[in-house]
Amino acid sequence: MSDTVAGHPEVRGEERMLIGGELHGALSGKTFPNVDPATEEVLGSTADASGEDMDRAIAAARRAFDETSWSTDHAFRRRCLEQLQQAMEAHKEELRAVVVGEAGSPLAMTYAVQVEEPIADLTYWADMAGSYSYERWLPEREVFGQRHRRLVAREAVGVVGAITPWNYPLYLNVAKVGPALAAGNTVVLKPAPDTPWSATLLGRIALEETDLPPGVLNVVTSSDHLVGEVLTGDPRVDMVTFTGSTATGRRIMANASATVKKVFLELGGKSANVVLDDADMASAIPMSAIGVCTHAGQGCAITTRLLLPRSRYEEGVELAAAGMGNVAVGDPWDPSVLQGPQVSARQKERVLGYIEKGRSEGARLVTGGGVPSGLDRGFYLEPTLFADVDPKATIAQEEIFGPVLVVIPFEDDEDAVRIANDSAYGLSGAVTSASEERALAVARRIRTGTVSVNGGMWFAPDVPFGGYRQSGVGRENGVEGFEEYLEVKAMAFPAG
Ligand code: NAD
Question: For residue 419, how far is its CA from the centre of ligand 1 (angstroms)?
């Protein structure tokens, strides 16, 4: 276990929200505390919006969409997104401190997905705004002796409500705001109450260091999840883009149905890592076990079910346990740490509840299962491995969102595919084999939005990411992700 690191940079956030081109406190004057999950200390406070504040933000976004040329001036949007990219780059250390402080993210991860990658990804969205082909002519077509020219145009959907979770707060805020703005929409961003500053800081930087017109980007923070429902139910909002739990996704879909909004959902996962019997287990399994503990297992696409061939089952379980034994747990500011705290006391208790469930349903606890010694303060848990897990057991079916790996044996490739697909989720997966052909054959049969083959890395701004079944609707990133934020309009003209 790691010791506390003294002397890390100060975590300084932004208390105010961005609404209509100005920084505001809540109309009620209320604030709520932002708690550091590594120390349980209060970092500071954030405006605690009510429905009234949300209403103002929606009105501002609507006006900006209807009354400015934002949606049609592609070159201007590109410039604004380039400015945002450069400004965030200039504020990178401030953003890094906020992500470590409020999300408990390991510092090491801020050099990749938590901070540096989302800042770099803004270049991709700026380029997309300027270079995407928004119009496409179809061949002329004759109808009743008259020829017609046909044009298919893509244009912004309108006002987008973006609702994000706390696990990758800056990354997910940018993954929504980037393409939504690039496509010409105006945005109301509502971050999770656990990580408000990754959004309010983004709002302040956009206000002070870019030419974004007032109301194009708004940020509303609240301790009350239901303020999100004002956004998902309002007729002035054209689309909701959401990342979070499947339970909330269902509720958002239902609430958005009253106004038939376009709904884009990135939800939970329970992804399978299938290791075939010819695989080099010693190189594949420990790394994947470590991956399950990264950021305390708080990632939607982590492969949290390890599927092992019965012929090499115990060998695989031992390698997974050894991998978990090598995970440095502790202060997220320690650069060697990969597993920091759970984000809140509530999440910690929730994961402990699943561990208890695993025990009571008869799975074999191989390692972990409790709170690491010496880490009672902060919301820490031990890397935890369960073997001999029934594929139908609760811990094999439900998303735990903690450093918990379940191992399930399979008989042959056919059986592995069946178990991998026996899930309400369909977000991601992995297959490892000495034969790429065999691995690919299994990967093609796994019904999920992404699959890593022999350790391949799919995560990138140009790769569409999303889920089958109850893992979501639509795709984030890539051209497919950009087009989620566009409507399609067909026009036709008589040809001469
Ligand atoms: P959550 O669903 O509890 O909350 C997510 C966001 O929704 C927060 O901003 C919250 O305030 C808001 N919200 C809650 N209830 C709402 C309602 N009724 N109407 C509108 N907004 C509402 O999720 P969480 O606990 O913050 O995040 C963890 C979940 O996110 C996990 O299930 C994880 O798998 C999922 N996740 C998915 C992806 C993905 O890309 N598929 C990525 C990261 C996280």
Answer: 26
